[in-house]
Amino acid sequence: MLTHLDAQGRANMVDVTDKAVTSREALAESLVRMRPQTFELIQSGGHPKGDVLAVARIAGIQAAKKTADLIPLCHPLMLTSVKVELLLEAPDAVRIQARCKLAGQTGVEMEALTAASVAALTLYDMCKAVDKGMVIEATRLLNKSGGKSGDYKAAVAP
């Protein structure tokens, strides 16, 4: 049984030594809502801080690679692929989707969720001077494949 608790009930990292190496993939998303004027600045490329989408994309990729440093008891992983897409949804939202892959003994759900979350936070940081009222919402795992627990697919998007 996999648990974060040892025999004395103390938190510890799950031992995955005996788990098989399999291909694993996870897709997570986060949604950032903003004023239509902020959306227009981002879409037009006219934001005073430049290409905020590119900065958020890079931040998400870097965050995925540092997940074990951010989330207690997470395994450090050798990711083979991280993709972060920022999809403009007029008139007032940016949907961030982060996909992580590896061949390993544990899944990449936390890496995908971390990438989507940090990309959303970076977008907020880059745009807060023009829109402090932005809302980050609907951060969730969309799907995952591989590993002993099998595949997962989320219900229809909110």
Automatic annotation (TrEMBL):
Keyword Lyase assigned: yes
Family matches, as InterPro entries: MoaC, MoaC_bact/euk, MoaC_sf, MoCo_biosynth_MoaA/MoaC, Mopterin_CF_biosynth-C_dom
Pathway assignment: Cofactor biosynthesis; molybdopterin biosynthesis
Active-site residues annotated for this sequence: 125
Reactions accelerated catalytically: (8S)-3',8-cyclo-7,8-dihydroguanosine 5'-triphosphate = cyclic pyranopterin phosphate + diphosphate
One Pfam assignment: MoaC
SUPFAM superfamilies: Molybdenum cofactor biosynthesis protein C, MoaC
UniProt binding sites for substrate: 73-75, 110-111
Every Molybdopterin cofactor biosynthesis C (MoaC) domain range: 13-147
Keywords: Lyase, Molybdenum cofactor biosynthesis
Gene Ontology molecular function, alphabetical: cyclic pyranopterin monophosphate synthase activity
Gene Ontology terms: biological process: Mo-molybdopterin cofactor biosynthetic process
Entry EC no(s): 4.6.1.17
Subunit structure: Homohexamer; trimer of dimers.
Protein family membership: Belongs to the MoaC family.
NCBIfam families: moaC (TIGR00581), PRK09364.1 (NF006870)
Task performed by this protein: Catalyzes the conversion of (8S)-3',8-cyclo-7,8-dihydroguanosine 5'-triphosphate to cyclic pyranopterin monophosphate (cPMP).
Protein name listed in UniProt: Cyclic pyranopterin monophosphate synthase
Organism, as annotated: Halopseudomonas sabulinigri
Gene name of the encoded protein: moaC
